[in-house]
Structures are given as C-alpha cells and as structure tokens.
Inverse folding.
C-alpha cells in the first residue's frame, strides 16, 4: 500500500519546494524504496501549456505527452521513476472533472460543494497519480502542494490532504512544511517569526507538520532551531536547516545529514535499507573538479532567457559532470544580434539556439546560426533551433531565397518549415508523403521512437534509434529536402510512419559539428547518466576551443 508525504510551503513562494521534495524522494529511493512524486497546482488553467513561459517558466513535457509544471522535470532528474500526465494536475482539471460528473447526474441531485466533492476529487486524483507510477505501485508518493499556506486557492488541497491522512489512519501520511527564515541585515539576525506564523496557519487547518525545512541563506544555529521547535510544536530534530548552496545536487546529502529521511521512514513505518548517497556526492565532486572550461552562447529572445530553459540548463550541467568540463552559459539576446551583427559571438566555443515560438528575434537567431556555420563553431539547434538552421541553410546554401517557416512568414515562396497540412498545397507538384495529416495545426507532443540513419553523426551519438519528446507544430518540409541534401545537409533521423525529419546535420567535410533536433533532448537528461547529445556537444566545444588555441599559438610563434 502506498504511503504519502505531503509537502507544503509557507511564507513566500520560490523557496525551492520542488527541489526539496525531489531531494527527499532521491534519498528514499537510495534507501531501496519505490518512490513517485506528484505536483498539485492550485491555478485554474487546465494545464500550463497555454501559460506564458514568462509567468510560469518552462513547460515540461512528459513521455506520454503532457505539458506540465517544470517541477516534474526536477522529479525526473532526482529519481528514476518517469513522470506521466497523472503526476501533475491543476484546480482547472479538478473542477472540469467534477462539473462533468455533475452534468452527467453522478451526484444524484446533491448540492455539489468544495467539501466534500472537490476535496474527494483531489484525493482520487492523488491516488490515481500515485498508482500511475511507471515503476509499479510505489511505497511512497511525495505530493507537493503548490502555492503557499494561507492562499485561498491552496485551501482545498490542504483540506484534502488532511482528510486523506485521517481516512488512511496512523502512519500512512505525513507532512513536511517548507518555510523561510530570513536574515535581516539591519538587525544582523535570522528571524523565526514568519515560520512560527506559517506553522500556526497550518495547524489551524488541522495539519501538524512532522518536519520543517527552514530555508535561509545560511545554516540556522541551534538556538533558532530550538525556538522554532518550541513555537511550532515540531520536535527539535525535525527542524531542519536548508541553506543556500551552489548546486541543487547537494540538497539530498544536506537533508540526509540532518535525518529527514529517518523521520519520514519512522513516521510511516517503512521497511528501508540505509541510505546510499554516493552517486550524489560523486557527481557533485565531478561538477566541482572540471579539467577544462567552455563557453556556450545560448541565443534567444531576451524575455525567454531567464526561467524558460530550466531543463536545458540542467542538461548542460549534466554534460559538464560527465565530460569533466565546466560549461559557462552566456545568454545572448537575438535582437541585439539582429541589430549589431554577430560580433558578440566571436569568443564562443559553441552556439545553441533553443526551442521557442513566435517571429520576434528569429532573424537574429538565423544570423547567429550563419556565423556558427561559416566559422565552423559547434552548433546545436533544438526544435526552433533546428528549424532556423534549416531556414538559414536553405537561404544561403541551397539557393532558396526568402526561405522561411510559415509560422513567421505565411506567404514565403519557400516554406522549408511548415505545418504538414501546408507542405503540399503550395504547388501541388509533390505528392503527399504522409497518410495522417491531422498533426497539422495541433501540437505534436510527447515521446516518439524513430530510427537513426547509419553512418551519420546522429548514429555515433544515439546508436540505432532515438526516443525523445516533442512540443511543436511545424515540421521541416520534405518537399525541399532534396535541395538541402544536395547542399550538404543530411536528414539523419525520420519518424517511422509519417517520415518527418527528426534530426539534421551538416556533412563532416562542411562543418565539424552542426546538429539540429526537432525534439527536446533536454527533457530526458539526468545527472546520473548525462545525455549523449549534450555530452557530444560539450566535447565538440572542447575540441573547438583546443583547436582555436593551437591556431592562436601557431600565429604568435609564426609557425
Ligand atoms: N515554434 C516552433 C513550432 O511550433 C518550434 C517550437 C519549439 O521550439 N518548441 O514548431
């Protein structure tokens, strides 16, 4: 039978509840338990797919094609269980489901209310989400409740959790509360009052936390911990200090050193072996002792470059761990390149154009890609980054003037990237290469397996096939592939049924490392293993840097 740990947050948001929940899960997994994680989002949007990335941060895509909260990305990076659609739900989904039942008459004429109908639905969704775990019925499901205690919209979730723990009985559910202990500079003191109040708020609802995770910019001294314990009625050893660290992968060890997992294991009476966090200490050690350093320029729209690329930044960090290379990421605003040319790219060891939507900044990205191609700088294009690489190559090498994506120029003469419904109706000459065109207009989401063409760079990196996740509408247009291939581009992977281009690369006699992928490899990268594509990319950046250094040396010595 699955037991539950509810993780709530107090005082302010953005304290890293997702990372804390995932780190606890990682420790429990290392103790031989089957663990899964769930994220409950108290907003009314049905999913975050339609929310501005600027407001919401990255949209994480699961293997089964759900657009979810970015915390699910953290979950997959910390534990081996794969997340599914059911691991994340929102108030919008709960209400949608309850209203549908009401319309069908399933409530038999009763008045439908927040308690019990919404709270029951939340409990049912929680249990369903826990059961959907890919690794079989989990021993523990860690349930992160979004928002902050005291928010009106979080209340039904807290109430549902309280009811669930009452219903399941002793030792089946426990509560972990994450709060802030701010350091007030003018007083030179850590302040415990916000934590006291936030726990009081939780107790008002009937929840007594079994452990407090107290976030601060520094370790919290014993005196303050004792004070928090006394005022919040949480045992002293369960008041855990979580201070700022430079790597999230240090958190499992920090929590374990203070006994968080033991508190949970004891409370839930779980049969667990001793923790073994050697994998985490090992990768932190590797992260901190690189043998080389490279600088990668990530070119994007200014507004997207902050929170929208969580998984990508982590994937580069994983590559850093597994190649012994410190990876510095420089964020480059594509509109600056559009205005000033590619001078800002001169010192880079590699260029990356990530996924994105909308026309703004695309010409700057294309200019950056041209610079990478002509200067033989390693290039990785992800999703939009692949589409733009194709557009750049079409314009400059394949002689397709004004080539574009119909996303940015619906009337382009050469729609080298287009919805698949648009591929064929422009000049009717090419016959339809796909039976199902219903992908057009809707988002292509989730993982899809496809074979890789032998003898390509893609095959060296991935082996025989790829199984990566998608989130896009437009596709490289097969109509133009012959012209592109004549210029030296290779389509190195295609989907098995629809024949859609999944990966492209430039022939090695043209460019040493130029790869574009229509999918998002960053979603499957983990710190444990890294990701073959990002590892290869960072290796290529290293090689490029070395060759450039040698070049410079040759010039100074006059050799
Ligand atoms: N805007 C492009 C499309 O919809 C690329 C999407 C992406 O990069 N995720 O196809």
């Amino acid at each position: 039978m699955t037991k539950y740990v509810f993780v709530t947050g107090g005082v302010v948001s953005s304290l890293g509840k997702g990372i804390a929940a995932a780190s606890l899960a990682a420790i429990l997994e290392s103790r031989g338990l089957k663990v899964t994680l769930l994220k409950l989002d108290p907003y009314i949007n049905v999913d975050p797919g339609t929310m501005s990335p600027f407001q919401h941060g990255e949209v994480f895509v699961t293997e089964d094609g759900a657009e979810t909260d970015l915390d699910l990305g953290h979950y997959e990076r910390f534990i081996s269980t794969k997340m599914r659609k059911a691991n994340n739900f929102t108030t919008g989904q709960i209400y949608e489901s309850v209203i549908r039942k009401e319309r069908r008459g399933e409530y038999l004429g009763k008045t439908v209310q927040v308690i019990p109908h919404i709270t029951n639905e939340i409990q049912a969704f929680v249990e369903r989400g826990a059961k959907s775990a890919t690794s079989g019925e989990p021993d523990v499901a860690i349930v992160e409740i979004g928002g902050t205690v005291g928010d009106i919209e979080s209340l039904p979730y807290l109430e549902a959790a309280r009811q669930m723990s009452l219903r399941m009985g002793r030792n089946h559910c426990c509560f972990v509360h994450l709060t802030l202990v701010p350091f007030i500079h003018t007083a030179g003191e850590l302040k415990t009052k916000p934590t006291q109040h936030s726990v009081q708020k939780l107790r008002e609802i009937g929840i007594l936390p079994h452990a407090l995770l107290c976030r601060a910019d520094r370790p919290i001294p014993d005196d303050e911990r004792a004070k928090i314990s006394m005022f919040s009625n949480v045992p002293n050893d369960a008041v855990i200090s979580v201070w700022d660290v430079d790597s999230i992968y240090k958190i499992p060890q920090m929590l374990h050193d203070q006994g968080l997992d033991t508190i949970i294991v004891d409370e839930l009476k779980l049969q667990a072996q001793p923790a073994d966090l050697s994998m985490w200490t090992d990768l932190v050690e590797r992260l901190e002792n690189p043998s080389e350093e490279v600088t990668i320029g990530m070119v994007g729209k200014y507004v997207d470059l902050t929170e929208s690329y969580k998984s990508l930044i982590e994937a580069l960090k994983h590559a850093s761990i597994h190649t012994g290379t410190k990876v510095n990421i420089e964020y480059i605003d594509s509109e600056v390149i559009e205005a000033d040319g590619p001078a800002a790219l001169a010192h880079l060891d590699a260029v990356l154009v990530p996924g994105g939507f909308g026309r703004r900044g695309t010409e700057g990205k294309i200019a950056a890609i041209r610079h990478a191609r002509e200067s033989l700088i390693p290039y990785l294009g992800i999703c939009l980054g692949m589409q733009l690489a194709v557009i750049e190559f079409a314009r400059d090498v394949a002689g397709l003037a004004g080539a574009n994506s119909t996303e940015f120029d619906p009337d382009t003469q050469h729609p080298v990237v287009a919805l698949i419904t648009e591929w064929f109706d422009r000049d009717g000459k090419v016959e339809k290469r796909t039976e199902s065109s219903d992908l057009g207009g809707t988002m292509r989401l989730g993982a899809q397996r496809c074979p890789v063409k032998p003898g390509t760079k893609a095959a060296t990196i991935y082996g025989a096939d790829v199984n990566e996740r998608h989130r896009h509408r437009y596709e490289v247009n097969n109509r133009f592939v012959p012209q592109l291939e004549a210029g030296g581009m290779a389509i190195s992977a295609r989907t098995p049924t629809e024949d859609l281009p999944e990966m492209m690369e430039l022939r090695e006699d043209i460019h040493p490392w130029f790869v574009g992928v229509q999918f998002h490899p960053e979603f499957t990268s983990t710190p444990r293993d890294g990701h073959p594509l990002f590892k290869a990319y960072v290796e290529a950046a290293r090689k490029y840097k070395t060759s450039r250094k040698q070049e410079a040396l040759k010039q100074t010595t006059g050799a």
